[in-house]
Automatic annotation (TrEMBL):
<dbReference type="InterPro" id="IPR011009">
    <property type="entry name" value="Kinase-like_dom_sf"/>
</dbReference>
<protein>
    <recommendedName>
        <fullName>Aminoglycoside phosphotransferase domain-containing protein</fullName>
    </recommendedName>
</protein>
């Protein structure tokens, strides 16, 4: 299997072109009855809400020829982060592939409101058997070695050269709640209601037995690896961001650190 597709896949805003956007959005243009429409100009900027830490998220305003109100005026483009350590950590747990698998397989007809997938492309990755072998090896190491890996994971992981690009519907008025704020009661009710719909839709669903994306399990030693990283970086990060990482926030963070094993066991339960 080739490791890179023989096509152009932009990884930054500088690599975006009108031609690539036209081809990527060809399906969307055809769906609304304007198959020959072309993107003749575009402008990039920051999205209205949220900041990505594992990737680059960009608002792209489009100019079409011929113009048609049914064509998307704005899309959200997503690329991997260019910070090598962050990308290595993200890829080691298959985070990009998880997101792509989710949007490609489940975004249509999803029980709660999510951005519509317009286009997604990625280079081929490792086989499931390779990832499974990695997890089995990690699961056999002693806890102290796993914690040691966590302490030095930022030096050990290496990003791949795979390319990822995704275009999503741009949702105007989308909001996020910053770490240092408690959502208003109305938001909390909406969040819990959406989670209830989500769980009811997938509860005991046979699709949860499918290999992708559910083969991406969190290995049992991940809590110990994260414990090691947390022990090294906790105090320096708190000292750098005291306005966000208040004593009450850190009490919760320390609780999560101490109970990660139970949390991961819960996440790994397919409930199917």
């Amino acid at each position: 299997m080739p490791r890179r597709l023989p096509i152009h896949i932009p990884q930054t805003t500088d690599e975006l072109t009108t031609g690539w956007l036209t081809e990527a959005l060809r399906g969307s243009a055809s769906d609304v009855g304007v198959p020959d429409a072309e993107v003749v100009a575009f402008k990039t900027g920051e999205p209205g809400a949220g900041v990505g830490f594992s990737g680059l998220t960009v608002r792209v305003d489009l100019t079409w020829e011929p113009a048609d109100p049914a064509l998307p005026e704005t899309v959200l483009a997503k690329f991997p982060t260019d910070i090598a350590n962050n990308r290595g950590l993200v890829e080691s747990e298959g985070t990009y592939d998880r997101e792509f698998d989710f949007y490609e397989r489940f975004s249509e007809g999803f029980p709660t409101r999510i951005p519509r997938l317009l286009y997604a492309v990625r280079d081929p990755g490792r086989a499931w058997s390779s990832m499974d072998r990695q997890f089995r090896i990690l699961n056999r190491v002693p806890d102290w070695i796993a914690r040691l890996i966590g302490r030095y994971s930022h030096k050990m992981v290496r990003p791949t050269k795979r390319r990822f690009a995704m275009l999503l519907e741009y949702v105007d008025g989308a909001r996020v709640t910053p770490l240092d704020e408690i959502p208003p009661e109305a938001d909390l009710q909406a969040i819990l209601g959406a989670q209830a719909l989500f769980h009811a839709h997938w509860w005991w669903s046979p699709v949860l037995h499918d290999e992708a994306p559910f083969a991406w399990r969190t290995c049992s030693q991940v809590p110990h690896i994260l414990n090691g990283g947390y022990a090294v970086h906790r105090d320096p990060v708190v000292a750098q961001y005291p306005q966000y990482l208040t004593p009450s926030v850190m009490r919760f963070a320390d609780w999560v650190d101490a109970n990660l094993t139970a949390v991961v066991d819960h996440l790994n339960d397919k409930m199917a």
